[in-house]
Design goal:
Blueprint: H1 8-57, E1 59-60, E2 63-64, E3 69-75, E4 79-84, E5 93-100, E6 103-108, E7 126-127, E8 136-139, E9 149-152, E10 171-180, E11 191-199
Antiparallel strand pairs: 1-2, 3-4, 4-5, 5-6, 6-7, 8-10, 9-10, 10-11
Length: 204
């Protein structure tokens, strides 16, 4: 009488084929998840970081970045305030860059003479970039998340608040971590660290 049941070898072959197909399918699913969930978040962190750096360094024609600073007004680990104005033009304005609650904000005054005249009021907080929504958070240096700005003097030594005058600042180091959610790859979150230097010439 012929046995119509499966042999042990056939069963092993079937299990092996199913395992291979499952592994291939899992790889495809992971790749699709990476493309649809992780990569857009990672690209967003990179885009936000690049635009923040561009605004901090160069800015726009009427709200120039820190490399156009004529005079430093205030400097701390989370905030940098400077006066901007074109050479030969008496119209100047103060601009403030600030880390606050995991976001970077910019404030600025109307044009006037904030160096020699009265200090005009600052604008409302402007989120930079404007599309850095609730899912994006920003912190500073590793081990010191509230330190975005570090300052240096002409000779390369660190500028010390309360010891060195503001006009001794000649270089700013920016260090930021931009992330979505927790920033953990295991949770398909994006995370990107960026650094930049700004030379402060203080044109008067």
């Amino acid at each position: 009488m012929k046995n119509s049941g499966s042999t042990l070898i056939e069963l092993i072959v079937t299990i092996t084929i199913v395992s291979i197909l499952a592994a291939v399918s899992a790889g495809i699913i992971i790749s699709v998840m990476q493309a649809l969930v992780y990569l857009p978040r990672e690209m967003k962190t990179r885009s936000v970081a690049a635009e923040i750096i561009d605004i901090m360094i160069d800015g726009q024609p009427q709200i120039r970045g820190a490399r156009y600073a004529m005079q430093v007004q205030d400097a701390s680990a989370t905030q940098f305030t400077y006066t901007f104005g074109y050479p030969g033009n008496t119209e100047k304005r103060n601009i403030r860059l600030q880390l606050n609650s995991g976001k970077i904000y910019r404030y600025y005054t109307a044009f006037g003479d904030p160096i020699n005249g009265p200090q005009p009021p600052y604008s409302s907080a402007e989120l930079i970039p404007y599309y850095a929504g609730a899912d994006v958070s920003i912190s500073g240096q590793p081990g010191s998340p509230n330190t975005v700005f570090t300052y240096f003097k002409q000779n390369g030594s660190a500028w010390v608040s309360g010891v060195d005058p503001l006009n001794a600042i000649r270089r700013i180091e920016i260090n930021m971590l931009v992330k979505t959610g927790t920033g953990l790859f295991a949770l398909w979150e994006g995370s990107f660290r960026t650094t930049a230097d700004i030379e402060i010439r203080q044109y008067i």
